[in-house]
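User: I'm new to structure prediction. If I give you an amino acid sequence, what do you actually give back? Let's try with this one:
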Amino acid sequence: MLNNRKKTLGVFVCKLPEYFQRTLCGALADEAVANGYNLVVFSTFGEYDNNHDYVEGESNCLYIPNYDELDGIILCLDVFDIPGMAGKLIEQVKEKAHCPVISIRQKRDEFISVLSDDKKAIMAMVDHLVDEHNAKRIYYLSGPSYMHDIRMREDGFRERMKSRGVAFREEYIFMGNLWYNIGKEAVDYFLSLDDERPDAILCANDYMAISVCEELCDRGFRVPEDIIVTGFDDVEEARDIYPMLTTVEACPENFARCAMEIIKKAERGEKLEKQYYISTQNQYRNSCGCKEAEEAKQIFRKQFKKNRRLVHMYKQNMFMVFQMEGIRDYQGLSDLVGKFVEGNTGVSDFYICLNPDEKYELDDSRKSPYEDEMEMLLHAYYGKKMSIEVPMPQTLFKRKNLLPADEVTDRPCVFYINPLHCRKHCFGYAIISFFNNRFYAAEDFYQSFVINICTVLENIYIQNQIEQLSNDKIRLIRRDSVTHMYNPYGFHEMATQMLHDATVAGINCVFFYVRIDNLQEITEIYGKEESNEILLCMKSVFEKFEQEKHVLGRLGGSDFCLLLEDKKQEEIEVLAQNFVNEVNEVNISWNKEFFIEVRYGWFVKEVGTISSTDECIRSAKMKMKVGAQMQTSAAKYAFEAMKEIRQNYQKEISVTYMAEQIGISRTHLSHCFKLIYQKSIQDYITSYRMEKAQELLIHTQKKIKEIAFLVGYKDELYFSKVFARLYGMSPSKFRKTMLT
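Assistant: Good question. You get back a string of structure tokens that encode the predicted 3D arrangement of the chain. For your 740 residues, that looks like this:
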């Protein structure tokens, strides 16, 4: 995946800065590097205030990797708090991955599961409370039963209570939600069960246990003197509160070692089990009455360090918020990132990779929020910040490789990736790496830093959109609405600047002026649509004569001017002749009932002469002469004959009569027609009549005899023979074939 000839493991996790996740990923990084693997952690920060756009943006993390490029996948499904995200991840992995997939702490039948022996651990906790603390009335705060580990913990509690002969009823178990806000409801319930208060409350996880401790203290109960409280998981907060929480530790390092062993066994082709279990360790602390004095000192020291980190984080956040207010370009963003890397000594490298060409909007036409090719915006690394050129050179690379090839070393790499998004915009992703491969140096600050980057990217995008709208408005003011050439205002402005530059450079300028003589007549007869087509056609003709420095404008309804520099007289004459030839080619090639007639002239603004732009334009107009219509007589004669044929194809057509109407001989007309249309007049009449016959056969129910008459044939049999000779089938068979 990373183009360094190493196999790559992918880890999918939510809320990476939390203790278990960052410790697990750090241990996985150590194991991966030691065994020659790359490790890439795809992370989200989790749900925020039920914000739909934010949740969707975080979920985009699932679309960054090519799953079939991974050589092993490790899922931490139980920590995903964004509704439906774990399910989407499972679908992506099942559909696209072709490697061992390991689920940590959550049993999944479709994957290999690495679980802790939760049942045994909770039984040991019951034994400890009964044997060491003489607890007789023990209640249990459980969680959702659909979660395998929670169900195993509850089963262990129930079985051990019964086997020890401790008083137990099913109402001693209360269903919680595994979060901090359950304390009041749970304590209300437990205190309402009997006249006597419980001796102990076991909780299925630490967050609920902490919530219960706080609620009991608020009501005047002492923990553990009045009521013992225990948890499960040994989260970081369990060691930060007082009393320090008695709990069960499922060591993240053990999960990492087990997962790596599974990957290695799969690589060796060994048979794999569906479930692997790691041992747990019960941590008996002060919330059950153990280790009181020493724990209080530990909590004080940890809290002091944490407060220092919080003060540092607060200052950094204040600085970033203040600085980012003025950032409206990528150079400013580069400075912000550089200060972050320099201020966090554990950070090795930081990358920002974006969808190219500001393709940030999500719509139904895009299969993924990320393009197949991404653009590396910047790379900052500790000790030196790479500068950004403005405008930046595009550094494109395949998204499946995550980074450009020259950014990846031959050694095993460890990267942590987060999506970059704001509102409905998906910008790309950020990649960070650390000197010791462990996500610790930025744990308190990284989330706010990434969110601030997203805010800056949104501001830059909005600024660019405003500038684009402003430029579009300027273009509308300067440009002709039909041809998008400069209008008179725009031409005058640009031509004046070009004249000034030419004067400074000591070179002459040529104003080549063109008018379509019959544009108004064509508009009146054939309409605005045909007129606009002529204008666009003239634009394409002019574009063939543009050079590096030029100004092209439509100066009126039918007038155009092309400003060129550094042309000699003979070069201008060649240009004029070639221009007329191009117009003639248009007249000959397109199948219209009209003929473009132009006149042209030019004026040379010599070096040293004083003439304004308006004076130069007037001089060029005064020198106009008849152009295309005088030099394309053959085309015009043929065109007149073609119009006569199309208008009167139902009647008998006399070549002699047409020649007399045009004012030339019959022989000359036939020669001109053959020269222009590459077929005789009679062949053209026949082919045009047959085209009309085809239309009538397909779109009407008229009889063959009637159609023959309508296209100029009195004899139905002769008409059918001519039709069959041209199309290889009779008119009736043609109709039947086309209608079926």
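You can read the tokens as a compact description of the fold. Here is one thing that stands out. The longest strand covers residues 425-434.
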